[in-house]
Design a protein that fits this description.
About 0% of the residues lie in helices and about 55% in strands. The chain contains no helices and nine strands. The two termini are about 15 Å apart.
């Protein structure tokens, strides 16, 4: 079983770095990190980035979001070189696994000067069927 959804967020417009507050039609509120359920996979299929100035968005992953200071590993970066928009679609998605249920991913940003920028990511959450009849 799987569920495909889009997460979207933006920079705050007043800082040069930070973590994106992500929203979606399947979330009740915005979040800074998305936990991956135990035994599930989060597949990142596409990213769209737009902004008023140069901005780099980073996809980051941690094995334990419940730690007092989670260790985030940067997996990918999408750089908007100037004002504009880019769209990246994957033939093979970035696969993030939920081994214990404490794993999570987030999107952070870096800008040389504070400006508004926007990001959308397409995520497929795949739940593996543990009881197979074969």
């Amino acid at each position: 079983m799987s569920e495909l959804f889009v997460l979207y967020g933006e920079t705050d417009g007043s800082s040069t770095t930070g973590t994106v507050k992500l929203s979606s039609d399947i979330l009740y509120d915005s979040v800074t990190a998305v936990r991956i359920p135990k035994g599930a996979k989060a597949k990142v299929w596409f990213k769209k980035v737009a902004g008023e100035a140069e901005t780099t968005f980073y996809l980051q992953y941690t094995h334990d979001v419940t730690a007092s200071s989670p260790v985030w590993t940067t997996l990918e970066a999408e750089k908007l070189a100037a004002k504009g928009e880019i769209s990246v679609e994957k033939r093979r998605p970035v696969v993030l696994r939920g081994f214990t249920g404490k794993e999570a991913f987030q999107i952070t940003w870096l800008q040389p000067a504070a400006a508004k920028a926007y990001v959308e990511i397409g995520v497929e959450l795949v739940f593996e069927n543990e009881q197979r009849g074969d």
